[in-house]
Amino acid sequence: MSFIVPLRATVVALGLIGSSAASAQTSAAPSPSSSAASTANAPSGELRQQQALGVLSAINQAEINAGQLALSRAQTEPARQYAQAMVRSHTENEKMLAAWKPDRSSAPAQAKTAEAKAEAAALAKHQGAAFDSAYLQAMVKDHRKALQTLDDSLLPAAADAEVRAFLQKTRGHVADHLAQAERLAGTPATGR
């Protein structure tokens, strides 16, 4: 019980630090020891949290893979820069997520992985300017869906405050990625 007050203070401090550097996404990875402690004493809801984190991991990997494909095929500098930013941002998020040991083998994570593979195969059929357009439209669709997944499934599954804070910060980054993709694709903003 005595570690709860310092943990709350840490979460608040990280939130303040993270909000000032949200676009840089440079905060340190979460403490595996606090995650391990919450897992050891967690009720059955903890598995749900691990599954939710597995879905986020699958989303990260999908964005990394799509970004790498775009880096090899994109024709325009804005599309290449966006792809590079997605690879960097989602790789960093994935590294921070690893401390909570996401359940990547869960059915929801596997379904997201299969969906991403199908989308990548469809995207790979495009060449030239058509690829850039298809990639940016896919990023709009994917980031809209990621926001909805965060709001409807992942955030409600967060069993501890540190995970919830991480997911809230991640949500902010995903919203920024969506706004960038909408601007580049010429798609009307959703206001999410």
UniProtKB/TrEMBL annotation:
Sequence ranges of Low complexity compositional bias: 25-44
Any Pfam family hit: DUF4142
Domain of life: Bacteria
Signal peptide: 1-24
Residues covered by the DUF4142 domain: 50-184
Entry keyword set: Signal
Annotated InterPro entries: DUF4142, Ferritin-like
Transmembrane segments: none
Gene3D superfamilies: 1.20.1260.10
Region annotation (Disordered) ranges: 25-45
Name of the molecule in the record: DUF4142 domain-containing protein
Native species: Stenotrophomonas lacuserhaii
Top-level taxonomy: Bacteria, Pseudomonadati, Pseudomonadota, Gammaproteobacteria, Lysobacterales
